[in-house]
Structures are given as structure tokens and as C-alpha cells.
Amino acid sequence: MRATVLTIGDELLIGQIVDTNAAWIGERLTVMGIRPIRLETVGDEQVQMREALARAMRDGRVTVVTGGLGPTHDDLTREVVASLFNAPLREDPALVEGMRRRFERRGMQMPASNRVQALVPDGFEAIPNPVGTAPALVGSYPHPQGDGLIVLLPGVPYEMQAFMQDHMLGRIAAMDGAPEVLQRTLLTVGISESALADLLDGAKAYLHPETSLAFLPNLRGVRLRLTAVGPDAASRLEDLATFIHARAEKWIYGEGQDTLEAAVGRLLKERNLTVATAESCTGGFVAHRLTDVPGSSEWVIGGVVAYANSVKQQQLGVRSETLGTFGAVSRQTACEMADGVRRLLGSDVGISTTGIMGPGGGSEGKPVGTFWMGISSSKRTVAVDMALGMDRIRNKERASTAVLDLLRRELQHFG
Amino acid sequence: MRATVLTIGDELLIGQIVDTNAAWIGERLTVMGIRPIRLETVGDEQVQMREALARAMRDGRVTVVTGGLGPTHDDLTREVVASLFNAPLREDPALVEGMRRRFERRGMQMPASNRVQALVPDGFEAIPNPVGTAPALVGSYPHPQGDGLIVLLPGVPYEMQAFMQDHMLGRIAAMDGAPEVLQRTLLTVGISESALADLLDGAKAYLHPETSLAFLPNLRGVRLRLTAVGPDAASRLEDLATFIHARAEKWIYGEGQDTLEAAVGRLLKERNLTVATAESCTGGFVAHRLTDVPGSSEWVIGGVVAYANSVKQQQLGVRSETLGTFGAVSRQTACEMADGVRRLLGSDVGISTTGIMGPGGGSEGKPVGTFWMGISSSKRTVAVDMALGMDRIRNKERASTAVLDLLRRELQHFG
What we know:
2 copies of one chain form a homodimer. Chain A is 38% helix and 25% strand. By secondary structure, chain A is α/β, with parallel strands linked by helices. Chain A folds into 3 domains: 2-173, 3-Layer(aba) Sandwich (Molybdenum Cofactor Biosythetic Enzyme, Chain A), CATH 3.40.980.10; 181-255, Alpha-Beta Plaits, CATH 3.30.70; 260-411, CinA-like (Maf protein). In chain A, the strands form 4 sheets. In chain A, strands 2-1-3-8-7-6 form a 6-stranded mixed sheet, sandwiched between helices. In chain A, strands 14-13-15-16-17 form a 5-stranded mixed sheet, sandwiched between helices. In chain A, strand 16 and strand 17 form a beta hairpin. Chain A is elongated. Chains A and B meet through helix 2, strand 2, helix 10, strand 14 and helix 11 of A and helix 2, strand 2, helix 10, strand 14 and helix 11 of B.
């Protein structure tokens, strides 16, 4: 079953905003076993819109359109659809009433211009917007493979996503001939794509055209996407996941939309432990990621950004002999920083980072990319090094992930 | 002059990666006065590629294609172009030699599969890739408005961008009938889009169809894009920029691709001052942004992430009476944090953040979104409040920008 996605808006064409809707929709459809074959973006211009819409419906049995449903004269999706379907626009009184109440609750009168958002092409169903004014519209069209489904959604990503999740994905899954697909994403960290592929070589025994495994690497780890289609999908998916867990348990920190910082937070909370950070090269990024997790104040005490050596010495208690003999970027300094912040802030665990992120600051013995991270707890203090690359921003990303993973692994040793 | 952009790759269709190339190219073309009318994405599939390519060239006098130039059997752009242009593929010996040397420098033999990347459709020009193996290809085609230009680029964003900037934008600008367009982007912070629009109402006197001003807001501020086309573009642009500077100087921190953190860094460096951060609610994000700037170790001493009140008291010296009487999220605490970190780390300036970022932690008197930021220097210590929203991640973004802007403005008072 093929799908097409059409996103509408001049702001996308001129690069004022990056279109994340198309990728989000493409991913969700793919997960359901429906194949997106084309993504198109056109501006707020009737001829282009009409042509693109006709092409999208010709090639896809599912057509997802976002944008152009606002109240201004630039918002032409309703009119183009009405004209293409030869379906007159009628005002839906329930939609008008819903919008009027929405404005009332905020102590405002509904602007006359919003009324156009209550117009629905004949034969389409309107679904009110729980968080905005533009309703979603759903219709059907003839297609060689059976009835086609077209959904028109607002372009604001969180409104679009809410409509897709709460209403549209279910309708698409219920279409005649829609495949039954199950999918899970296992999240790994601390192992490269190729090492993971070698480790999971035996997974081949579980794979065939209807059971597949994809490796999706990025700077924060490698995601493993398991997909099974057709009869017995659930048990085939389960068997594959069991095999992967048995081989790669050590590197798996979560599933789906989980994050490493949230996983670390759960481990700390379960063990009733707190953490503090001593950051040189990551400059606060590790603390920032930890405190992105809602409720993190329960297990983050705080941290020290020890950019200058004076802060390493005076706050964290790194000895001047250590800095003199081994340098600020060294195993010894990383250990003393982790010990120091644990002692200073009174946390159960201390973690540290020190490295040369670039573009400057490298030397022959310690080139750009040299990185040490440390961890200190009641059990032990250790430091580990890692070779990063040349790009400062990517290096901060990789270094922060590495030290959060070091913390994750160390927490396994606590009861 | 109209342009079309075609991005190729299954990974884009299935949402494995978000296509940032199309927006980047769309923006660059728009800046040059060339109008992108459609962005399309298709997978690694010949029929779809061929159809989309023909359509792109039909509608655009400039056609930019990215992706599908790699060495594997999935990379079909060369073949589809050769077939559509009826232009046989020939091996370019200089390209082969360049690739061979590239592998040699890394101590490797060139894999046989890479050789396909040296194939060039007859009539196309190949431009070697300085940072990868896939060359860019440039060709021309007949178009009703004059010769059309087609450029084929690798899909890796930084390779694509390098080719566009170093080679393609110049060729596009040199096409017959390409408009002469000048553009500048002024970056503002600390003022809302609507307040800025009111303030700059007088700019209307400078605007007409060939001189325009766009307001582009995001969480880090409002960018002002000034565009002038045609004869006298330079002097019209200059007049408009002079007017805007005269009215809004206070809020303008830079131009083009500058960042607020880099601007703050320049101000500190010019004044020979250093900064330290005391972060509660931003959790290290302010220090992270400052240390993203290359060379920031010259003016960032470090910081304290004072998430727990114990850290505010013991490290930063916030008094328990202050916390008891006014609370951790208060003017008084923000001031004492800023003073405290300046004293503790010996910096010239201290900045602080404390607030309730959500989703939990709000109360009747201090709802989610309550935020105080402080600054301490030899001149004075002050704190300012601001009402943020309900979303934790957006709140951290806005709060960090606000305190960096507070620092920027305070630095104006130093000689």
C-alpha cells in the first residue's frame, strides 16, 4: 500500500522553516507497513497545489496533506480540495460553535476571519482541533487498488501529530488491505554500528522478508528497529527481541522514545542515589541533558563547570601536582574531578569530563579529540578515555553521551 | 526565475532522517531572488526518479538535485540522468585518479565499487569533491525562459553545502536573466516580534516591491531579513539598515550567522572580562551555550549548576533566611546566586538563573513559568523576572537566551 505526503506553505519553500512534518509522517506510515513513495512541498499557490494534490492521489492510496488550513487568504487547501473534488464548501455549525467557545474561554471574541476554518468540502468529515482552531478534514477518493483516504491536517507540528496519533493512524490501519505490522525500537549506546552488527550476526536466522532488523546510528547511539508483518508478527517480533536482548543486553538502555538521560534518572531513583557533574570540556551540557528530564531535581544535586584550571583546583580540589605532571586532560585529573564534585556537593556519585574539543587547543601528545571521563562513587573511582573527532559541537554531543553511559553502566553495580 | 529542488533517498521517505537540504537550498535560492516553487523527495527508484526529474526541469529554470550519487547499486541518479538526457555515461580519468589518491592518503586501496562515481553523463561537467568521493555534476537543458541549469549534488549536507557555496551559487547568479539581489539579516534579542514591528513602523517609507523587510521570530530572538532587488539595491538596502539600526540598535546583537553567545563572548573579550554562571533552572544550558563558542576558555571561568538548595547555600552562599523568606525562585536568590558565583570562581561578572520550568513544581503564587535571572559585577547586582510558558525544553531555551541578553546589555556599561 503506497502513500504520498504533501506539505504546503511558502515558509517551507523559502527555507524559513525546515519541514519536519513530512519525515514524521513518513516514519509513522513506514512503521505501519505503508510505503511512502513521494514527499512534495508546494507554496500557497492554487495551480501548484492542485497539480500536486492530483498527482499525490493518483500515486498514493493514502494521501496526507499538511498546511494551508489557517484563517488567512494565503490558506488555500480547503478551496483547492473543494474544487478538485467538485465538492462545495459548507459551513459546519458545530465547528463554528466550538471555535467561538474556544475564543470565549480566553476572554476574546472570535475574529470574523476564523469563520472560514469551519468550511468543510461536501463529503468530508471534520474533526475539531483540541489545541488550535483549524479542524482536520478526512475524505475518500477512488483509487485502482480500492478506496483511497485523504487527510488534511494543520501544519503546526504538534497539532498535526495529535491528529495523526489520535485519529488518522487508526483509520489508515483500518483500511481494506492495510498490512498488519508490528514494530519495536531498541535503543543502544556505547557500541558502534559495525560492532553491533557483528554481535547480532545470528539475528539472520530470525529474519526473512516479513521480519526485518534495521540499524539506525546517530551521535547518541544506535537504534535497532525490529519490524514484523503479517500472521504471527507478534511472536516473530518477540523471538527476535529476545535474541537481541540476550546478545546485547549490556548496551540496551531503553525502547521507543526513551532517552539515555531519562534511563539514567530511573536507575538513580530506583537506587535512591544522587549525582553531581564536574564538567570541563562539555561545559555544562551533561548537566543540561540530565536536567531536561522532568523531575530530575529528585536525583541531580548540581554540578560544577570547571572550565578554568583554577576552578578545577579551588572548587574540585584537583591537585596542582596532578595538573603539572599529567595535565588537565588526563586520567588523573578526570578521577580527581569526579571525586572532588562528589565530595563538594555531597552527592552519591560524581561524574567528570575533560578533553580537547577543538578547533584549537590541540598539541602533539594530546590532539583535538582527546577526551577523558571519570566516575566516583562509594564503590570506586575510575576514568576512561575515548578518541573524539575534530568538530566541537559533535564532540560535546558524543562526550556527554559517553559519560552518561559510563554512569549508566556503573549504576548496574549498585543493588 | 523559478527553481525546483529534488532530494533523493529512501531514508528521507521513511523518516529515518529529516531532509534539511531542501530548506537550506530553498533559502539560498530565495536570498538570490530565485523562487523555489516545489520541493520533492523520492526514493531510490528509477521510475519515480525519472518522472520527478522531468517534472522538476519542466517547471524550474534551475533544478537542484541531491542524493543518489554514492557507490552502491541503490545510487541511481547518474543513470537516471543519463537516460533522461540520452547522454551516455563515460568514465572521467581525472576523477578516477583523484579518488584513488584520496584513498591512498588514508592508506587504503580504492574499492572497485567507487569507480562508478567517476562516470559522467555526456555533456555534463564534473567537479571533484574536496571532502568526499562523489563529484558534483552540472548540466544544462532547454527551457522556455532560456537555458536551464541542473546541478546534481551529494546528499551529505556539508558536502552539498560546500558545492553550492563554492561553485553552484556563482553559476546560478551568472545565468542570463538571474536577478541581482542583495540581502542582510539583522539579529535581535529581547524584544517581541510585535513590539519590533511597532518600533519599525517607519520602515514602510523605505519599502516597495523591490525592497522588503521580513520578521523571522524563533525562541532565540527575531531575525530581520532585509532584501533589495534590482538597480540601486545596495543603496536601498543600506538606507533601510541605517533606519533599523537607528531605531532598534539596543536589541541588535549581530548579523547573518552570528550567535548571541558569540556576540557576548566578543564583548567580554574586548573588555578583558570573564564570566561565571550560577544556574538552577537552566541546569547547565547557559554554560553549555557559552562553551559552544570556539575559544570560549579565554572568557568563561566556569560555573555552578545549583539544582539543589544545598548547593545554592553551601557553594554560592545564598543565605538560608533568603530561601526561607523569599524562596529559591525570587529576586533575592537570583542576586545572591550571581554575587556568589562571581566571588566563588573569581570572575568579573556572575550571571544566575532560577525558575520553575515545569511540568511539576508550580504553586499558586509561583506557577510554572516563573523565572528570575541575576547579574553581578563591579558596577552593581540586579535581577529581572520574566514569565515563561509551560513547556520545560522551550522554557530552558528562552531562559538561557534571556540571561545571555541580560549579560550582553550589562556589558554595554563597561568601557
